[in-house]
Input
Amino acid sequence: MTLARCAVAIVLCQAFVLVPNGFAQTTAAAPKKAGPKKERDFTVGGVFSGSVSQGSANAELLGSSGAPSVTLFTTKNEMAPGFGVDAAFGFQLHRTLWVEAGARLMKTGLRTSITDDFEGASDATIDAPVTRISAEGALLWYFREKGKTAWFVRGSGGVLRDLSGDFTFAESGFIGSGGVGVRYWWRTAGKGAFKRVGLRAEFKALVQSGGASLGGRSTSIGPAGAVHLVFGY
Output
């Protein structure tokens, strides 16, 4: 009888030890897996814009009836080609979707060409230098990626400030763009702050509303592009 009681006591002790352990194993929450780290990058490089027409007009001599009788000369107005630098920070929202914020400094100008002078004077061109400062936000989508190369579409919008050459005259406006580009990584697994280094090129249409202008045209569209160094971290 004593042996039987000892056997029962041993079984009960094992049950009290094993059951809580099993219960803990079945109810413990599985550790959550951390999601992929969001990437960031910094771009810096050169930008350019093509000439943009701002209309043309004739200088005319009015007759006694008030109707034009003689065309004195013709003027053609445009925003001259521009060159500058810009920089932006990019933040990954999704695997293929990024948002960017940056600023740009460009040298451009207003240009008037005078032709067809009534008295036979030589054609002349008058240039007025303009310094353009702008700040923009952009949305970028990588639609195709193969190895170290990726193609994207990018749209941006922001504000601009055009300053005359002597900084005595200023006009504000809005600026936007849309285009396509390609990015190529030279290095993808480096050490230090920037683990990826590459090159990015973009070609786009540039839309301007306001700012410096001639001929009364407030909105203009022209070609533009950019080449950047890209540092990923």
